[in-house]
Design goal:
Layout: H1 2-144, H2 149-152
């Protein structure tokens, strides 16, 4: 009996120790499970926040991509317009240079014609001056009355021909 009582007491103690160990172990496992659940909730919250941030960044990236494409189109349009304007201005420059060249050529032609006319005028002025001298000389002779007209003109039919150099009637 005593042995039995000792075994029963030992069994009761072992049972009590096993139950205490089991309860402590379960309490630690429950505590660890609670911490793990909190960590899982925190991880889920963090993952949700990361998902929201990712979606916001993706939306921002799409918006920026659209703005970039729009700016690229505007740049292309500006380059095309600038190119067209530059070509138009270059054509205008070529036309103005042609007009200037033509005007210079025409001015040079007018200057040559003017110089030719000036030469003709000077020749005519010289000829007129020569005729005046002749006329003055004849008046002097007529006033003195001593010279006849046939003595003044030894040639029976005088002809005068004057052709200035380089004069042409082209316009």
């Amino acid at each position: 009996r005593e042995l039995r009582a000792q075994y029963e007491a030992l069994a009761a103690r072992n049972l009590q120790a096993a139950e205490d160990w089991y309860r402590a172990r379960c309490a630690r496992l429950h505590e660890r499970a609670a911490r793990s659940q909190e960590a899982v909730r925190a991880s889920r919250r963090e993952a949700g926040e990361c998902r929201r941030q990712l979606q916001a960044r993706l939306a921002e990236m799409e918006s920026l991509r659209g703005a970039h494409q729009s700016l690229e189109r505007q740049l292309q349009e500006l380059e095309e317009r600038h190119s067209a304007e530059a070509a138009g201005l270059q054509d205008t420059i070529v036309q103005l240079e042609d007009d200037l060249r033509n005007t210079k050529n025409e001015m040079a032609r007018h200057l040559r014609e003017y110089q030719d006319l000036l030469n003709v005028k000077m020749a005519l002025d010289i000829e007129i001056a020569a005729y005046r001298k002749l006329l003055e000389g004849e008046e002097t002779l007529f006033s003195t009355g001593s010279v006849s007209l046939s003595a003044l003109n030894p040639l029976p039919n005088p002809t005068y021909s004057f052709q200035p150099k380089g004069f042409s009637s082209s316009t």
